């Protein structure tokens, strides 16, 4: 089934926040953000801005009627700065004006007198200063220290991975409309309608019931709007609350780049121990996460880095400690993979280091340590339905890995100024929110008297195709044509207490709730059919009631009408909570994931050794989609994730100067993959697997896992560089930009980190 949004997308008719019709009397907001990354506010001069004609009001922390606080996990994030500013661009005041242009001009007229405080932008430095968001966490199994004694080889090193800008096409924004009795309806570009509702209620000192959040769709979120949308929504809601007028704010791209948090950069130390047969016996690591100025989702992201520290390898003795470090950058946040990629990069770097030192291929170490059915993860869960070896074997044979390796070797023998590199990237990703209570969802289904169907769930459509999958679930469960079904905007008055659309779990959780609702309705309809047809064995097939194996003359429309006239309830609200998951953080053991997703990618690159430029020539994947319910959507998700992962690992280079100011603050200085960066060969094979009972229709979650194939591009490039310059001792420091490639091609020693000028 095609994506149901294709039609309005290609015609430009899909409605995003900024496309909503403007209500009479709408005002426009703009943030005045901190001009320094850290300091104590002495005074604010608002006079010039206030005097600009068209400015209606300038709001500061003093105007907040409720709590000046939007921190979700930890209350450490104020809505508007009052005492100190903690990052460059931190909102200090909100200008509200008659037009967008006036609001923006007025914001430039505000002056702040701020006493500077020391700026920390390095997580290791923050850690040394004791600036931790939460106490460090350690996941361990076996006895790593003791096991090193039994190892034949031990290698140590450091691995750094950079941040990543979400670059959703639709920037952050919100539009608040005052209703009667102080109630507010708010349109938000958010992955988490309930998170927005909670933040707004808290800031305004109101009950959540007075705040309605409505989301039609997002032009992408990629994690950046899981909690990142709360701030903008709370700001416009504050203005609407104070002025009783509609207030809208849609960020310009450069504001969004400057003021919003990104993927967490990590810097890590590792130690890996192997036996002669290349089995990993022991692995230890310390991960330093750059959380930015406040907690936001950092502790949860940190947790997932720990869960995925072993990637898809069985490591009997492992100890990994992770530190969430507070720096003076915008608060880093969820980003596709949610800390998993950062944890996986470190073990892959450790394996590459071992391979390079031993003079063996990394593939041999990877292959020798793949997780098997029944192996325990370091957090206690036992691998069940483990497809790690099946994916590896399929990819290696389907794409002829030995032949690909021979081609690389042959090419490198014959070419001096161009070198090829190959890397294999197997993945394993756990599906479920790592907070158990978040693994719940609800669906509300109305069968209208004319036989059409309205479906509401907590899922937010952000391009990932969840609405298409919800149509498929309802169509299959009710046995009606998809054309009968409408997916409603996500709205907190129809579906309350939603978990964000995140963790790749949205179609599983909401789909299962929808399935339950449809089953309950079907049961009721079958009761009506039984009475009407005087038969016991009735079923609905393709909009017709069947008796035994024969179609009756009772069709869907008549059945619905009959049920309605008999006063049978044609609406159902159902609840789903993932069974079987549990986790005990006091011992860091449990069964946190409903299931895991596996796969293997073969990645090939070519480096131009004169220029340092490169191409990713192919990504060839065997992926475990389970029983994919929509191969078009799933393939699109895998392709998009792979390209986004390659971008993170190769070209997306976030630069802050020592004063904490973002230098890569525009699309001229921050490069993301475009259509020309997409590997010319991007093969994705759907491995035949059983799927999981916990996946909707046994179709496994797909949103995030394939992003981690992009890590293979980093190691393939590294292999190409080393083919040119075997003594190049380049650090494990992603992204592998062409500049870094060029330097490492001609360096024997460590490539120095270039000094960044302000
Ligand atoms: N695909 C598109 N087109 N746009 C997005 O913003 N977000 C990703 C992924 N795929 C995203 C996307 C992220 S971070 C997640 S967690 C999942 O979609 C969320 O949706 P799902 O749970 O329905 O897979
Ligand atoms: N993934 C994504 N988002 C989340 C998670 C998670 O595991 N936990 C809390 N928010
Ligand atoms: Mo995705 S990072 O869980 O929104």
Automatic annotation (TrEMBL):
Superkingdom as given in the UniProt entry: Bacteria
Signal sequence bounds: none
Name assigned to this protein: Molybdopterin-dependent oxidoreductase
Species this protein is from: Rudanella paleaurantiibacter
Cofactor(s) in the UniProt record: Mo-molybdopterin; Mo-molybdopterin cytosine dinucleotide; [2Fe-2S] cluster; FAD
Record keywords, A-Z: 2Fe-2S, Iron, Iron-sulfur, Metal-binding, Molybdenum, Oxidoreductase
GO MF terms, alphabetically ordered: 2 iron, 2 sulfur cluster binding; iron ion binding; oxidoreductase activity
Record domain Aldehyde oxidase/xanthine dehydrogenase a/b hammerhead: where: 11-118
Family: Belongs to the xanthine dehydrogenase family.
